[in-house]
Amino acid sequence: MKNLDNAEDLQEILGRVGRLTPQSQRVWGTMNVHQMICHLSDAKRMAMGERAVASRQTFLYRYVMRYGALYLPVTWPQGVPTTPEADQQVGGTPPTEFEGDRTRLLALIDSFRSRGEFRAHPLFGTMSRWEWMRCGYLHNDHHLRQFGL
């Protein structure tokens, strides 16, 4: 199962992020490419405790959805709502300059991988390092597919 601790999987994600341009068009969803980069950065910051996020855990999400999202061999579905703190239409970090925001995302992916501890996921609760690296890979993959990469 792909995850950000695997060197090949990491290079795949970094290469796909590197192929994004300000002109990249979404295939589905509502965010533009620049908003998506900031959304992924917000998610990394929340996981590392650098950005506040409210817990929205329920039994269903903590046990059933977490297992399905991280362990079943399916791609994440389109249209799943995000937390308001990372929603570009509500409380997400606004884009500034494309290259700078992309560089920050790449640095955050590196910091995320270097992290020893993570805060509880807002929906899935406390997760192991492997689960965080799997979630990180899948979240990046989900939004890169949103832009055809």
Briefly summarize what is shown.
The chain has 149 residues and is mainly alpha-helical. The chain contains 5 helices and no strands.
Tally of separate helices? 5
Provide the structure class.
mainly alpha
Q: Stretches where pLDDT falls below 50 for ≥5 residues?
A: none
Largest sheet: none
Q: Which overall shape is indicated by the principal axes computed on the Cα atoms? A: globular
Q: How many structural domains in the coordinates? A: 1
Straight-line distance between termini: 19 Å
How much of the sequence lies in strands comes to under 5%
Give the radius of gyration.
14 Å
Please provide the count of β strands. 0
Query: What is the string of helix and strand elements?
Result: HHHHH
Residue share in helix: 40-55%
Q: Whole-number average pLDDT?
A: 95
Q: Which descriptors would you attach to this protein?
A:
5 helices, about 0% strand, mainly alpha, about 150 residues
Describe the protein in words.
With 149 residues, the protein is mainly alpha-helical. The chain has one domain (7-146). It has helices at 7-18, 33-47, 59-71, 98-114, 129-146.
Topology overview:
Blueprint lengths: L6 H12 L14 H15 L11 H13 L26 H17 L14 H18 L3
